[in-house]
Amino acid sequence: MTEPNTTPISPKVKRPLVLLTGATGYIGSRLLPLVEQRNVRVRCLARTPDKLRPQAAESTEIAEGDVLDRHSLDAALTGVTTAYYLVHLMASSSDFEKQDREAAENFRAAAKKARVQRIIYLGGLGEEADPKLSAHLRSRHKVGKILRASGVETVEFRASVVIGNGSLSFDLIRSLTNRLPVMICPRWLATPTQPIAVADVLDYLLKALDLPAGESQVFEIGSSDVVTYGQLIREYARQRKLRRWLFSVPLLTPYLSSLWLGLVTPATAEVGRHLIEGLRNPTIVRDKKALDVFSIRPVGYRQAIEQALNESYKEGAG
């Protein structure tokens, strides 16, 4: 993890202002205290400020606003140097692609008007040229394109499965493995993926604050391990000392798989369906320039699962 930047700043030098969107989400809620440790001023965008206030430091400003309300963004972005865009509307709308696009266009216009210097965005891996790219991943890529078209320098990270306690993808793996001793599995369990530990994702997002000014860039991030979802399930079971049997069949469609997941996981069938549609697409790192630009060396998937389990034990969620 990145050590807090403790370099003293003269009181006469105005510290840069960082805006964090999605501060109540999985990544945003973990990123907030880390950004608060930096020598920056922090502002969060929230639809319900009272809900976020207990989670934020006293010095953190909370601006009421909604990415789907264009005019509410002007005040939130005023004076902002760097803005984190950690918004995804898949869980809040059946037409999430349209809302994702609308939200990104609103944020793009407001950021350009406010002369924001940099946008940092977390999207998803997946081959853009794939005609069968899922709606979930297609929307992630589209949002990145919209933000880059703003003229504001945009640093986009693309990740696959984020392994960490509380991550929806990891929770799906955990719930399936905990509840089903025998799994009749669809073909997507053989899809290759390059997972990444949540601590490494946060490290990338933090270090993007320190990049020298330049052109917009897309960084594909992941561990050095290319594995299948079946391997993730088996490794989770091994570390939990659970005996599990997986049998793959070509009969379960993504839609039927999502209904199956809805019965055994905390996720709704609708959100599960979108996630499963994304699991059929290989999500691997093809461009490794992140390893040249950043000093971060992500841990392997076994260590990432171990870290997630240790955290869940501490929180009593294992």
Number of strands: 13
How much helix is in the residues? 25-40%
Q: Mean pLDDT, rounded to whole units? A: 87
Q: What's the SSE pattern?
A: EHEHEHEHEHEEHEEEHEEHEHHHH
Q: What is the strand content?
A: 15-25%
CATH classification class of one domain: Alpha Beta
CATH architectural name of one domain: 3-Layer(aba) Sandwich
Descriptive terms for the model:
318 residues; alpha/beta; two-stranded parallel ribbon; 16% strand; single chain
Short description:
With 318 residues, this protein is of the alpha/beta class. Helices cover 40% and strands 16% of the residues. The protein is globular and about 60 Å long.
Descriptive notes:
The chain has 318 residues and is of the alpha/beta class. The chain has a domain at 17-162 and 195-224 and 283-298: NAD(P)-binding Rossmann-like Domain (Rossmann fold). It contains twelve helices and 13 strands. The strands form four sheets. A seven-stranded parallel beta sheet has the order 3-2-1-4-5-6-11, with helices on both faces. Helix 4 (96-113) links the parallel strand 4 and strand 5. The longest helix has 18 residues, at 96-113. The radius of gyration is 20 Å and the shape is globular. The model is unreliable at 1-11 (pLDDT under 50).
